[in-house]
Design a protein that fits this description.
heterodimer, A: 184 residues, mainly alpha, Rna Polymerase Sigma Factor, Chain: A, Arc Repressor Mutant, subunit A, 2 domains, B: 217 residues, alpha+beta, Jelly Rolls, 6-stranded antiparallel β-sheet, 3-stranded antiparallel β-sheet, 6 helices
Chain lengths: 184, 217
């Protein structure tokens, strides 16, 4: 296993000295997870593996833009994997560029100083997800990982649409309230 | 805290990568301009991070790591990225908008009332425009079949639903909107994403109107 701090250290090692061993450790930990994430979106294992490899190469290429005060390693890699999945869905269209996470993670002026440490947010979110009911967790996971509309989720779970929507809202609301309490 | 934030469900769709490119641009601009939206998005991305960390993982074939390592010789570790430089004449444009601006683009006067720059956002069924209104001027009252996303980028405007300042986000069926009037001060500049009143079917159909299909509106 790899702690959040260890993972962040490894990305910084790539940025500082093109550390190939650090890359290998990150790859062993995250590539299978990214592959599983892509497969949840409906891709076959070969395509998902391809995307996972490409995503980890982006981690290497963009390592210097990683900022552990803005995002945990897992969060940053999630955004890369998500953008790769968007590319996959839009195949043939213009690929999404790196602006997405540069905008999200490159601090701009003083506003960055006011933002809470995203690494802490990540640790809290992990705890809080553990505190959600199984019902809430399943809809959140589907919304994030399977790129499914609420209507499809409702059908799959054989639930009324309103129930799915309220579970997502409740789950997001609980996360937001808990985190805002931390921030204040 | 923005007085007019984007709905959290829309931010969730954005964080999950499920929004088509044009509404995603509107959300990206909102997030770039509104620190509260940015914090909300950080939280949602952290949910994605925690979920991916919690994956059991799908094994890669034995040679995958070797192949990736072999690629590294051809791939440089890039210097830290800096946000795109502001574009002369478009100083009000936040970073996510800059890749969409081209030097030959200029304001076009429409109906003698307001100025427009049409943006070319490929791949989906939305009309994406920058609109500029002089203070006190309004858009002609309008409505359309689809949904409309508005992000205020400079100045402000007021309509029956409230007053909107830089970073504020508005969403809604056009039929419910009343004539927006630019507030005093600088000209109001806003990005407007309007769903075209056409229905496409086929493999891309599901990307076209996630909000309606999700029953969120």
């Amino acid at each position: 296993m790899l702690s959040a701090d260890e993972a962040a250290d490894l990305i910084e090692a790539i940025a500082a000295r093109q550390d190939r061993a650090a890359f290998a450790s990150l790859f062993r930990h995250f590539a299978p997870r990214v592959k599983a994430f892509i497969m949840r979106g409906g891709s076959d294992p070969e395509a998902a593996q391809e995307v996972a490899q490409e995503a980890l190469i982006v981690v290497w290429r963009k390592a210097a833009s990683f900022d552990r005060s803005r995002a945990s390693a897992a969060t940053w890699i999630y955004t890369i994997a998500r953008n790769k999945r968007i590319d996959l869905l839009r195949r043939g269209a213009r690929p999404i560029d790196t602006e997405d996470w540069l905008v999200v993670y490159a601090p701009e002026g003083e506003e960055a100083d006011k933002s809470i440490l995203a690494g802490q947010t990540y640790t809290r979110v992990k705890e809080l997800l553990g505190g959600l009911s199984a019902d809430q967790l399943v809809v959140i996971r589907k919304a994030f990982f399977e790129d499914k509309t609420h209507t499809v989720i409702a059908k799959e779970l054989k639930l009324p649409l309103g129930t799915v929507k309220s579970r997502i809202r409740l789950a997001l609301g609980r996360l937001r309230e808990a985190l805002e309490k931390d921030e204040s | 805290m923005s007085r007019h934030p984007a709905p959290e469900e829309l931010l969730l769709d954005y964080a999950a990568g499920a929004l088509p490119e044009s509404p995603a641009l509107a959300v990206a601009l909102h997030v770039a301009l509104d620190p509260a939206a940015r914090r909300a998005l950080d939280r949602l991305n952290a949910v994605g991070g925690a979920l991916i960390e919690g994956e059991a993982g799908a094994a890669l074939d034995d040679a995958a790591l070797e192949r990736a390592m072999a690629q590294l010789d051809q791939v440089a570790v890039e210097p830290r990225a800096v946000p795109a430089a502001r574009r002369p004449g478009f100083e009000w444009a936040p970073p996510p908008l800059i890749p969409h601006l081209r030097p030959e683009m200029g304001w076009r006067r429409i109906l003698g009332k307001f100025d427009e720059i049409r943006l070319d956002v490929p791949g989906d069924a939305y009309r994406v425009s920058l609109l500029r209104l002089e203070p006190g001027r309004g858009l002609p009252e309008h409505k359309h079949a689809g949904y409309e996303y508005t992000v205020c980028l400079q100045g402000g405007y007021t309509d029956a639903t409230g007053s909107y300042r830089v970073g504020d986000f508005a969403i809604g069926p056009g039929a419910e909107r009343h004539e927006p009037i630019a507030d005093p001060g600088e000209p109001c500049i806003a990005l407007i994403v309007v769903e075209k009143p056409i229905v496409l079917t086929g493999p891309w159909g599901r990307l076209l109107n996630p909000l309606v299909s999700r029953g969120l509106l």
